[in-house]
C-alpha cells in the first residue's frame, strides 16, 4: 500500500490510507475512550497489556489515541508500587504500538497523550512551577527552555501529545483552576503560549524528532470567565470580549505552529464550546488557518446529550462543530451507527480522520512507531532540567512588601519557620501532580536550612483549612526563640487518596476533610486565607517578632487582613519541586527577586472583578464601603534594588494609517537605570490606550514587555516596536482595524506606575 512509502508527501499517504479504511476503522481513529492506566497491569513478570485494552483495539480495528498511560495520582490510583517504572516507560509504549501493529489490519500507530500542565504527570516526572508562577517570570525565553525539557521527558517515555493549559485567562480568581492560568492579561498569556509551543514542538520541522511532542493547548475558549468562578460554568460574554481577551492566546499558538487544541467545557453565550462551529471551525480553521487536531475534554461530548437528546446526536453535534478526537466519551463510539442511521455524513468522519492521520504521519510514527528504550534514563530528571527548573522558580517569586528593607536576611539570623506550607512538598506542586518519590523536592523549610548559618526552628502552627488551633502554642514558643519569623501560608491543591472524583477526574471535596482549597473542581466563594491562618498571623504578631510571610498558593488569595502584621511578603505561588531552594535564596539575598504579578491581587472577594484592563467609563470606579483598587496591581513586584525610568520618547510622534497598514512600526524608547547597589532584573512594561475609538476601550492594555538585567549603576535604553497587531481594535462592525486618532502609550514598572506619551494616527 502506498501510504507505507515514506518518499510520498504526507497528504498523499493520508489519502491513500483513508481510501483503504472501513467505517469501523475510521471511527476507531477518532476515539480515545479508555483511561490509559487501565491498559496495563504490573506483574512479577513485567508490564502486561490488559484485556480491556485489547477490546478497545478490537472495537475500532485500531486506536486513535490512548490517554494517560503513564499518569499517576490519587484519581488513577497509580503509585510507585503498581505503576510503570520510569525506566520501563518506553518499553511499555513500544508494547502498545507493537500490539496494535501486529493485531490490526492496517497497523495504524497509536497517539499516546499525557498531561503536562507543569511537567509530565508521571512517576518521577519533573514538576515545574504552575502556570500562574510561570506567568510571574515574564520570561518567555526561559519558559521555552523549560518546556523543551518537559517535551524531552514525555517523548523519551514514548508519548506524543502533551496536554498543557495555556489558553485560560484568569478573570475569576475564585475558580479552582486559577493556577493553570498564565495571567489575567491576554498579551502576557499569548507570549507564554508561544513559548510553550516552541519549546514543546520546536520550529515545526522538528516534530518528528525524539525530543519533541505535540502541544495540545487547552482550554478553547473563555473558561477563565466562568459564572461565579465555578468550574465549567457558562461564560456570559459577547464576541468582542471573546476576541479581545480569550482568543489571542490560541491565535498566537496557531501562528507559532501549534498542532493540538482542546475544547473547553464551558458554553459561550449559550453555545457549548464542543458544539460551537463558529469557534472550532470558522475562527480556528478558516480565519486563522489552523491545521492541527481538536481534542475533546474529558466526557465533554457526552455532556451535550442534555442538549442533543442521545449519544449519536451529541457525537454528530461535536463532529460537525470541529471536534476530531474524543476523550473517554461514549458518544464518539456511536458514530458508525450515526452514519448508518443517517444522522452523520461519512465525509465529516473523513475530515476528522485526515487530521488525526496527518498528525501521526508528521510525528513519523508510520515509519518509526517505536522509541529507543534507553533514552529516558538520561533524560528524565536530568541535572540540566533541574537547573532550568530552579531558575524558573527563582524568577516566579514576587516580592510584594519589604518594610524597612527587612529583606534580604543575614544568614546568621535565628529563624523560626512556621506554617502549613513550610514543610509539605505536595503543597508546592499544584494540581495534576504525580505521586512523588520520598525525599524528592525541596520544601520552604529545607530551602532555608540549606542556606542559613544559624539555628532554624520549625513549627507547623495550623493547617490550610482545618479550624484547630492546637499547634498555636508550639508556634508561639518557636517565634519567641527566634530573631525573625518566616510564615509559610496560603493554599493547597494536594489531592489525597481519600477524596472522591468526578468522571473526568475533578476533585469532589464538599463535606470532605481534604486540605485542598484549589485545583480542578475546588472553587471558592471567599478568597481569604483558609482555616485559622489569619489568626495564626495575629498570634505570632503578638510576640513582637518581625514576620516575613511566604504565600504558597494557586490563586490570588485576599491577604488584606494580614498586611499590617507582616514586615515582608513574598508570593511564591506553587513553585515546584525546586521552589523551597529558590525561596531560601531570595530570602537571604543570594537571588534578587524579579517576579511581577501576572494578575491583580484583590482585597476581598466582594471587589471582583479587579483585573486591571477593565473598560474605561470616564470616571473613577468607587464603592462606598471599600476602595475599588486591588491590594496589589497587575505587573507589580519589588526588587532589592531600585530602577529609575526616564526619557520616554517616540522616534516619530505622528504616523499615517496607510503606513501602519503597510506594516510600519512605531518605535518607543525609554532609559532604565539601576539606581541601587545590587544587580537585578527588571520587567519593563508597555501599555496603550486608544483615546478616540468607535467602541469603548479598556483603561489600558499591555502590548509589550522586556525583562532586562542591569548591574548596579548601569543604564540601558529599551526599544519597543508596536504595529497593527497592537494598535488595531475590533470596531463597531466587528472588524479588526486601526482607527485614526490619539493613542496613549504608557511605559513603566507595573500597570499603575508609568510614564506617558501620545501617538497620533492620521488619516491617509
Explain this structure to me?
The chain is an alpha/beta fold. Helix content is 27%, strand content 19%. The chain contains 22 helices and 28 strands. The strands form 8 sheets. A 6-stranded parallel sheet has the order 3-4-5-6-7-10. Strands 11-18-17-14-12-13 form a 6-stranded mixed sheet, with helices on both faces. β3, α4 (89-103) and β4 (111-115) form a beta-alpha-beta unit. α6 (140-156) runs antiparallel to α16. The radius of gyration is 26 Å and the shape is globular. The termini are far apart. The model has no long low-confidence stretch (mean pLDDT 96).
Q: Find the count of extended strands (DSSP E, 2+ residues).
A: 28
Structural class: alpha/beta
- Output the radius of gyration: 26 Å
Uncertain spans: none
User: Which shape, going by the Cα principal axes?
Assistant: globular
Q: What's the rounded overall pLDDT mean?
A: 96
What strand order characterises the main sheet? 3-4-5-6-7-10
> What is the beta-strand fraction?
15-25%
What is the share of helical residues? 25-40%
What does the main sheet amount to? 6 strands, parallel
The multimeric state of the shown protein is single chain
Distance between the termini: 59 Å
Q: Helical element count?
A: 22
